[in-house]
Design a protein that fits this description.
With 437 residues, the protein is an alpha/beta fold. It contains 13 helices and 16 strands.
Length: 437
């Protein structure tokens, strides 16, 4: 079996190519570069789900302590809010390197009211646009609209992954198992040896397809039976594309390792990024959900949130740097969000509890809407109302930003807002808020 000839790129060459900043310099690289295969070449969409409720007052909506009120942030006792371009950030974790490097490629939306302190409701609201279950993610809508015939149009590293029956998602928790499944004719003990001769395997496949076509032509099939046969038939036809992806997957020793973010909290996000981008580059996928947890810091907030935020920003830097190496960066739109925020005060265990007000970040290379902040909160992190058409603060006649507003904007940004299937799941939050104009 032919193997990819390009076995990787050296670290020193990657550093020259990608222009690593201090954020990326400490990363375990694990980069590998391949020749692109035929397949999907359109826009790519990624949702990064920050699970547990992140503290945006120590990230992209920084807050100083207010005299006479509970202490909001310990860091505010010795440091000041920082700003790069039009974006303010907290002098905490790895924020400085991240915001300084990517400010021109990001839009920050502050003051999003999740209308809940419940994790399950917050996750559903943030990633579907409404509090009750049943609505698809925007990644599912995009995969359905752009890539319904791709074998792995929508890939997921976990978290909220509702498709509402429009498409299907593929989990990437076991890349080795996926490779072994697709490359089933390759022996486990020798990657250059096959179980059967190729001509025999081709003959078997032709007989299998002929039998499948005969089954599909039978009269009296129920809609469920026909749908199952058609799905299986499409999967068989797309096997060559999956083979290209499987051959692009790094060997076990070249996959990104699971990382211990802090004691008792581990993350596979770098591996999720690595495998998702290789699926994109192989042309078999165009939408991905990434998942990272560890942000539900009800005790020892700073000690746990600081490494979690650092890991988050380093993983995002890894994503954009690897995407540049693979030639994908110009096609990717990234949406980063969380269940909700955390209280603007510490509890008795030096932790922070659930707070409905949070933020979101959109990123795209050279975005015309970059280096901007939309939305606002007061000095105690209560959301301010906006006039929807101007996005200016209007506490009298305005309204709050809700996750549904963000999801509506994401649908527009992805170009799927007028697709019939998206219109079947309307988000009714009032007048449209155009965050990107």
């Amino acid at each position: 079996m032919n193997k990819c000839a390009n076995k990787g790129i050296k670290r020193r060459d990657l550093l020259k190519l990608a222009g690593w900043s201090a954020v990326g310099a400490s990363l375990p690289l694990g980069f590998r570069s391949y020749a692109a295969t035929e397949g999907y070449t359109g826009p790519l969409f990624i949702c990064l789900q920050v699970d547990g409720g992140w503290d945006v007052t120590s990230f992209c909506d920084p807050k100083m302590n207010v005299p006479g009120e509970d202490e909001i942030n310990h860091w505010a006792n010795t440091a000041e809010i920082q700003q790069t371009g039009n974006i303010q950030y907290a002098p905490f974790a790895g924020n400085a390197a991240f915001f300084e490097k990517y400010r021109d490629d990001m839009l920050v939306i502050n003051g999003i009211d999740a209308q809940t302190n419940s994790h399950s409701a917050g996750v559903t609201h943030t990633w579907s646009g409404r509090l009750s279950e049943g609505y698809p993610t925007v990644t599912a809508l995009a995969a359905n609209a752009y890539a319904g015939d791709l074998p792995m149009g929508y890939v997921s590293g976990g978290g909220y992954q509702e498709t509402a029956g429009l498409t299907r998602y593929t989990t990437l928790n076991n890349p080795d198992g996926l490779r072994d499944l697709v490359l089933g004719n390759v022996t486990a003990w020798n990657p250059d040896q096959n179980y059967r001769y190729q001509e025999d395997l081709d003959r078997i496949k032709s007989y299998q397809l002929a039998r499948l076509e005969a089954l599909m032509a039978r009269e009296g099939l129920t809609p469920r039976q026909r749908h199952g046969l058609e799905t299986y038939y499409q999967a068989r036809l797309s096997r060559d594309q999956l083979t290209a992806f499987a051959e692009n997957l790094p060997a076990q020793g070249e996959l990104q390792d699971e990382i211990e973010v802090f004691q008792g909290q581990r993350s596979t996000m770098l591996r999720q990024v690595q495998v998702s981008l290789l699926a994109f580059q192989s042309g078999v996928s165009m939408a991905a959900d990434l998942f990272v947890s560890g942000f539900d810091t009800h005790s020892d907030h700073d000690a746990e949130h600081e490494p979690s935020l650092t890991h988050l920003t380093e993983a995002i830097d890894y994503l954009w740097t690897y995407a540049e190496v693979l030639g994908l960066a110009d096609r990717i739109t990234l949406f980063v969000g969380s269940d909700f925020g955390r209280t603007p005060r510490y509890n008795s265990g030096d932790g922070k509890d659930h707070w409905p007000i949070g933020s979101a970040i959109f990123m795209r290379k050279d975005a015309p809407w970059g280096n901007r902040v939309v939305g606002s909160t007061d000095e105690l992190h209560f959301a301010r109302k906006l006039e929807p058409s101007t996005l200016e603060v209007d506490e009298v006649g305005g309204r709050h930003i809700y996750p549904g507003d963000v999801q509506r904007a994401m649908r527009v940004l992805a170009g799927v807002d007028q697709h019939p299937d998206a219109l079947s799941f309307p988000i009714n939050t009032g007048e449209y808020m155009d965050f990107f104009s």
